[in-house]
Amino acid sequence: MPTTDPPLGVAVVVRSLRKTYDGRHVVDGLDLQATAGAVTAVLGPNGAGKTTTVECCEGLRAPDGGSVRVLGLDPVADAVELRPRVGVMLQDGGLPTGVRALEMLRHVAAMYAAPRDVGELAARLGLDSFARTTVRRLSGGQRQRLALAAAVVGRPEVVFLDEPSAGMDPQSRHAVWDLVRELRDEGVAVVLTTHLMDEAEDLADLVHVVDHGRVIASGSVPELLATAVDGPGPTLHLEARAGLDTAALAGHLAAALPDGDWAVTERDPGAYQVAGDASPAAVAAVAGWLAEKDVLARRLSVGRRTLEDVFLDLTGRQLR
Q1: 264 and 274 in contact (C-beta within 8 Å)?
Q2: How many of the other CB atoms lie within 10 Å of CB of 154?
Q3: 19 to each of 183, 207, 208, 217, how far by Cα in Å?
């Protein structure tokens, strides 16, 4: 039975969650929430604790401390009551490998009182082309589409999607995105974990960035971009030829720019972000400087900061 009522419209509430493996705090006092009728993205580097957090929400792991409530219920203690109301798509699929794809989806649908139309869902996600193929023979992208169909066929109130478009071609990916938007518009609380920053930027209404077992930033994509180090405005991106003195290049490039508040950052070897007012005069100044110094530019473009820029600023660039 529910122990507390969630705030109005809030479908998932995580408070002070803790989980330890072999004496190591994988999740360390984490707080987050997800609301109905919204896509909530949980982002983080490998090992940050996001997968463990979501598994606690799904009832696949029991917390060592804190609390998790999904639709006001404890995912572990109230699993029988909660299971028909929640859809789960695991990254590895979790699908039986010996059955045919459409046969498996029909079997899952039969477990629910009012499932989606299996034929319509199969057609929408392109399952018909491999309907009679056993799961073990499906490609990675095909398995992902089947796993997504199985997660949503029961009309869940909350759905957890782990890397939903991993391994998919562009056509499949956009079909998945359209379905996620439709779920949101139907009032479903969608919790999305992904390493694809463009996917999160395109779909998410709310983003939680997790690192070292805690949420280190939360907000809508525009809010996160607005509070980023370099601000949300347009920037210049320059990729110069290899072999140059990169430290000197950054200084010389900054000196060549028009008066203004500029920040020249070497994002990767030979690749620079020029943050400031990316006006036509600034673009002309950079192009003129390249010609004067006989520097070969592989790329010169103007664009705004992205969620990936924010993510890297928050979590760093070191490999995990």
Answers
A1: yes
A2: 22
A3: 30, 22, 18, 20
The residues, any chain, with a CB within 8 Å of residue 110's CB and separated by 6 or more, are none
Cα→Cα distances 69→59, 116, 296, Å: 10, 26, 56
262 close to 226: Cβ distance less than 8 angstroms: no
Name residue 148's amino acid: L
**Bridging pattern class, strands 263-268 and 271-275:** antiparallel
Nearest by Cα to 131 from 168, 107, 111, 105: 105
Cα–Cα distance for residue pair 48/214, rounded to 1 Å: 8
- pLDDT tens digit at each of 320 positions of the chain: 444 555 568 999 999 999 999 989 999 999 999 999 999 999 999 999 999 999 999 999 999 999 999 999 999 999 999 999 999 998 776 789 999 999 999 999 999 999 999 999 999 999 999 999 999 999 989 999 999 999 999 999 999 999 998 889 999 999 999 999 999 999 999 999 999 999 999 999 999 999 999 999 999 999 998 875 544 456 666 666 544 555 556 667 677 777 766 667 666 666 666 666 667 877 888 788 778 777 777 777 777 778 998 898 899 877 76
> What is the spatial distance between Cα 256 and Cα 271, in angstroms, rounded to a whole number?
17
> And the tokens for 290?
């390249």
Q: Work out the angle at residue 151's Cα, subtended by the Cα atoms of residues 138 and 154, and round it to the nearest 5 degrees.
A: 125
Read off the amino acid at residue 237. H
Q: H or E segment at 162?
A: strand 158-162
